[in-house]
Write a structure and sequence with these properties.
Layout (H helix, E strand, L loop, with lengths): L1 H24 L11 H4 L12 E10 L7 E12 L7 E14 L4 E16 L3 E15 L30 E18 L2 E10 L21 E12 L3 E12 L2 E13 L6 E10 L3 E10 L2 E10 L4 H4 L2 E12 L17
């Protein structure tokens, strides 16, 4: 009996830890971070020199083998404005909606935001971008689906026993404000480099399911740093090394690796995509994809290498990304201000 109680206690602790990790992870939880640019940095809004608009969809599911799956999904889109009106710059506007659900208590977060950025050419080969975003985030949890230690009756968790947990709300909402900077260097039509930094949750919003006299739980600021490059090799390959670092509170994440596009048809209309990434002390992430015209579809699999692998048999997460880019008909004949790396 004591052994059974101990196992149940471990499960309760594990569920709580997963819930806490989900709270910090919900700002961004994609391995293909480069395919969700508005979530990383609002300065990425409209940062798309070769096209007028783009739109994307991301879906991720993880931890299915150790409990209730943690699912994250989102859509986003952005476009350029005034590209033909200003000789040395343009504006970008965009928006995103993201939702995820985690744990037995269905802890969920829904975030909708709008972003704007200005992109200014510095000479002929450099570009400086600054962006700002604001949105509304709501979080909710089904308290009735949670069990607590004082509901253990010696044999099982009895939901008829009051938990005496000081929950005041099952749903909270707040305004979220973010900003960022990007710098890009376009050396030639065969090489490009970009790096950026962003500060998320600038207003430190309150986020707690308890009364203010018990816990005010401000969301800590999140710092994102990234760098990427593109190198075209003999008109057959475009190699894209990149790295992403994020820090929030006492937690941090480092993802780095490379993906490459293989020109299949000689004209760049069909491309095979392969990649391999590493999340520090957590996972190895192979990626494959296919691009036809301006539509790109990529999938990845996170193979767990951390201690969690003993519980999930090294099965981590599956992720799907779909990105569509395009040119408005009225934009034919427009001038491209920056050299671009493409087939």
């Amino acid at each position: 009996m004591q052994k059974t109680k101990f196992i149940y206690s471990l499960l309760v602790l594990w569920t709580w830890m997963m819930g806490q990790q989900a709270v910090h992870a919900q700002a961004l939880n994609y391995s293909q971070y480069f395919n969700s640019p508005l979530l990383i940095n609002p300065a990425n809004t409209g940062f798309n020199p070769d096209y007028d608009y783009r739109a994307g969809m991301n879906y991720r599911t993880q931890w299915a083998s150790v409990g209730v799956p943690y699912k994250t999904m989102g859509v986003w889109a952005d476009t350029k404005l005034f590209a033909n009106r200003f000789e040395n710059g343009w504006m970008g506007i965009g928006g995103s909606i993201m939702k995820d659900v985690a744990g037995q208590g269905q802890l969920s977060a829904t975030a909708a935001s709008l972003s704007v950025a200005w992109h200014q050419m510095l000479g002929y080969n450099s570009l400086l971008s600054a962006g700002f975003s604001a949105g509304i985030t709501t979080k909710r949890v089904d308290i009735n689906k949670l069990n607590f230690d004082n509901q253990w009756n010696g044999q099982f968790f009895d939901v008829a026993i009051p938990s005496f947990e000081p929950f005041a709300f099952s749903q909270v909402g707040y305004l979220d404000i973010n900003m960022g900077l990007n710098y890009a260097y376009f050396a030639s039509e065969n090489f490009y480099f970009n790096a950026g930094v962003s500060l998320m949750h600038l207003n430190r919003p309150k986020e707690s399911f308890f009364a203010a006299n018990i816990s005010e739980a401000s969301v800590p600021m999140r710092y994102n740093l990234f760098a990427n490059a593109s190198l075209k090799i003999e008109d057959l390959w475009i190699v894209n090394p990149n790295i992403y670092f994020s820090s929030v509170g006492n937690s941090s994440e480092l993802v780095m690796g490379v993906n490459a596009n293989r020109n299949l048809g000689g004209n760049g209309l069909q491309q095979m995509i392969v990649g391999l990434y590493y999340r520090n002390a957590d996972a190895i992430i192979p990626m494959v994809g296919y691009q036809i015209n301006d539509l790109k579809i990529t999938v990845n699999y996170d193979a767990t290498i951390s201690s969690l692998g003993r519980l999930n048999a090294a099965r981590g997460a599956y992720e799907l990304s779909i990105v569509k880019q395009g040119i408005f008909t009225s934009s034919l004949g427009r001038s491209v201000k920056c050299p671009t790396v493409r087939f």
